[in-house]
Amino acid sequence: MCAEVDAMEQARSQAASGLGKAGFVRRGFARGWFTLTVAFALHVFDEATTEFLNVYNPTVTAIRARWGWFPMPTFGYREWLVGLIAAVLLCLLLTPFAAWNARWLRPLAWFYALIMFFNGVGHTLFTILGHTVATVTFPRPAPGFYSSPFLFVGSVWLMRELVKTGAGLRRAAA
User: Fold this and answer.
1) Residue 7 — pLDDT band, cuts 50, 70, 90?
2) How far apart are CA 7 and CA 20, in angstroms?
3) For the whole model, what pTM was predicted?
4) For 46, which of 38, 64, 122, 147 could close a Cys bridge (C-beta 3.0–4.6 Å)?
C-alpha cells in the first residue's frame, strides 16, 4: 500500500513539475512554435530580398486614401526589418515557455498561428491576382510568396499541437 501511495505522489509531483516518465521534460507545443518561428524568419528573409515594401507601402497608402481610418502604418526598410528581426528573436526566446506548455502563452500562440496562416494566404492570393489593390500591381509571384508554404505548414502544425496539448490541460484541470 505504501509503495502505491509513493508512486501516486511521484506521478503527481512529475505532473506538477512538467516532467514526464523517466524525468524527461514535456515538450508542450514547442515543436510547432519553433517550426513556425523558423518559417517566420525565412519569410522575413524572403520579403526583404523581394522588395516587399515596394508593394506593401503603396497598398497601405491606396487603402488609406479610400478609408482614412485604416490602421496599418507604412515603413522605411530599416525600421521594418529591425522590427521583424526583433519579433523573430522574441518568438525564439519564448520557445522554452511553449515547451513548458505555459498557459499564458497559449492565446498568443493561437494568434501567432492564425496571423501567419492568413499571411501565407494573402501572399498566395496576391500572387494569383497579380495585384493587392487595383492601383498596385507587380510581376508574379508576389513578394514573400516563396516562403508562404512554410508559413502554412508551421501554422497548421502549431494549431494542431495547441489542440493536442490543450486537451491534456483540460484533463489535468478536471
Assistant:
1) low
2) 13
3) 0.81
4) 147
Q: State the DSSP H helix or E strand holding residue 12, giving kind and residue range, or none if neither.
A: helix 2-17
List the domain boundaries for the chain.
27-173
Distance CA 126, CA 104 (A): 34
Burial 18-39 (b: 16+ CB within 10 A, else e): eeeeeeeebbbbbebbbbbbeb
SS (H, E, C) 103-135: HHHHHHHHHHHHHHHHHHHHHHHHHHHCECCCC
Q: In terms of C-beta distances under 8 Å and separation of at least 24 residues, what long-range contacts does 100-105 make, across chains too? A: 100/18, 100/25, 100/26, 100/28, 101/18, 101/26, 101/28, 101/29, 101/165, 101/168, 101/169, 102/28, 103/169
